[in-house]
Amino acid sequence: MVEFECTWCGKKYPTDTLEYKCDCGGLFRLNYDIPDFSKNLIDTNEWNIFRYRAFMPFEGSSYKSVTLGEGLSPIIAYDENLLMKMDYMMPTLSFKDRGAAALLTHCIDIGVKSIVQDSSGNAGNSVAAYAAKLGIECEIFVPENTSPKKISMIEAHGAKCHVINGNRDYCADECRKYVRESGKYYANHVYNPYFYEGTKTYIYEIYEELAYIPENIFLPLGNGTLFIGSILALEHLLSSNLIDKMPNIIAIQSEKCAPFAKAKSKNLKRIPEISPESTLAEGIAIGKPMRDKEILEYIYKYDIDIVEIPEEEILPARKKLALKGAYVEYTTAGNLAAYEKYKKENDIRGKSIITLCGAGLKSDH
Q1: Where are the domains of the chain?
Q2: For residue 138, what is the enclosing H or E element?
Q3: 327, 361 contact by CB (below 8 A)
Q4: Side-chain half-sphere of 215: how many Cα atoms within 13 Å?
Q5: How many angstroms separate the CA atoms of 26 and 164, rounded?
């Protein structure tokens, strides 16, 4: 049986509910029985994230009408110590296609015909693309500093794009206000736990491709979509006795917007109120992440380090990646800048892996 459970009070909800959060204000997680991870359960006939559907809460074959061939991105070496997973090699040029494919599969399974979402660009683009394929009406709210190319891509998929004067957090507030007034389904990548069922395939792929998990995993952390999905998958591999310990996880934030770093420095259970500054790393510039309590619990449970991207190192890092053949957006370049900063300040042993999660053509302002 698959059900939603509130992460705050534990109240259960059926997964076909149109509510996007619990009555108490808490967000949902998914509860369902999941078999131990085994390569024998991977459907190698599927060349998309649904090759791992044995470990996902889907029944039937509705995913076949959804998939755009997302996932299965290659892993290449940056140098002898650092690996890069080329996760911008996706239908809409960002890793968010993993989550969008899973979320839209859920949408068609429960008969949703019209959706609304807020985004800094990439998630909105992904959701708009999959909704277009399925004939689902789609509206996306983005903040005014969103890359014009991301807005153009959203509109190209036939979605209505609302550009909101204000930062990312204000945009999200305005979107949720519109959802409450319109009654439309909030297909949001932060609130809806089905999105994480897609992003957790990032780790499954690493394990399948390498036959091991690198000692150090660097994960960008804004709202936490890749972070939470990766933790879920790593916990699954751990409980399946395929890895003997949690790898060293390093969360990446912008120095201009680092609520989790500030919370951890003071051992807080909730993030403090901050005023985000303008940053090139727009994809993780989230001052009020809605799953802060849940993410902080993971940070303390696994003693996760947090490194802040030096703003002045983003463009040099982008150039370094381009000279390796990888042309990425600014937020993605920040992952390399963060790795280099962390390496200077810490004794890193073994292999490390970063994600190249967004293509450069999407963020040329």
Answers
A1: 1-33, 75-94+194-362
A2: strand 137-143
A3: yes
A4: 7
A5: 26
Looking only at Cα atoms, what is the longest distance across the chain?
Answer: 54
pLDDT number for residue 365: 52
C-beta of residue 355 within 8 angstroms of C-beta of residue 219? yes
Residue 344 structure tokens: 């200077």
C-alpha span between 87 and 252 (Å, rounded) = 17
CA dihedral (49, 231, 360, 86) positive or negative: negative
User: What pLDDT, in 10s, does the model give residues 152-178?
Assistant: 999 999 999 999 999 999 999 999 999
User: How far is 148 from 56, CA to CA, in rounded Å?
Assistant: 35
Which residues does 133 contact at the CB level (< 8 Å), separation at least 6?
Answer: 65, 66, 68
- The yes or no reply on domain 75-94+194-362 and CATH 3.40.50.10490 is no
State what percent of residues in the chain have pLDDT above 70. Answer: 99
CA 319, 325, 328, 333 dihedral sign is negative
In this structure, what token pair is assigned to residue 225?
């979509």
Residue type for position 309: I
Q: Tokens 């420095």 label which residue?
A: 265
- Compute the CA torsion angle 54, 97, 209, 206 (nearest 10 deg): -90
DSSP letters along 159-174, please? -EEEEESS-HHHHHHH
> Tokens 């292999």 belong to which residue?
351
Say if residues 120 and 188 touch (Cβ distance below 8 Å). no
CB of 297 within 8 A of CB of 327? no
Half-sphere exposure of 79 (CA within 13 A, CB side): 8
Question: Which parts of the chain register pLDDT below 50?
Answer: none
Give the C-alpha separation, 193 to 190, whole Å: 7
The DSSP letter of residue 206 is H
